[in-house]
Amino acid sequence: MSMSVATLSQPQLRQRLNLLLVLGASLALSVLLVTFRVFLTHKLTFVFLLWNLLLALIPFGLSTMLGLSAGRLKARVLLPVGAAWLLFFPNAPYILTDLFHLEPRAGVPYWFDLALLLSCAWNGLMLAYASLTDMQQLVTRRLGWWAGWAFAALALLLSSFGIYLGRYLRFNSWDILTNPIALFYDIVSRLLHPTAHSGTWGVTLLYGVFLLLGYATVRLLGRMGEENLADSH
């Protein structure tokens, strides 16, 4: 795979570096909270969150690589990398559902576990939105504004379906290779018999709408900040 790296303008480079610094600091906080909890309790209760965060970094890494690539990417590069991105993308917003694990536990203040889970959920959500922003911009450059937002909405709906598959059916991204028959059967059965699986579509639609509204809010806030900065100059 050969891709030339784009030469970013100084403001773009500064924005990219600032984003990486802030996300890095936020991720470091999550790691610190999980590590401190292990030392405090001598239990590995929430160590799985570190693996979940690592999985959430994969789509962000892929989209960052594509976003930094110069010019119009060729289909033979964009399609397979985009498919891999879409496969791993649900792992980022999936961390929101780890809030299900919040309950009072001996030896740790309830508020500490709440802060720990919120920190990880926030990082998953922000990694998802940052990654989707890069991918949406790629689509927008090729196909236009409407296609970009249609892609973003579809990606978030598919990720919500992926969240259901992961949280309730316990599938993961690797199952497309290691357990494809069971995964295919469960997906097709829900497509062919939607009324028999109301929970599937309830989670998909409700979480999809929630994620889309959150994403639109974040994008709008970013645009307002850019416009206010431009006006001040």
Automatic annotation (TrEMBL):
Which residues does UniProt call coiled coil?
Answer: none
Membrane among keywords: yes
According to the record, the segments passing through the membrane are: 20-40, 46-70, 77-96, 108-131, 143-165, 199-218
Q: Which domain of life is it from?
A: Bacteria
User: Which InterPro entries does this chain map to?
Assistant: DUF1361
| UniProt entry tagged with the keyword Transmembrane | yes
Q: What is this protein called?
A: DUF1361 domain-containing protein
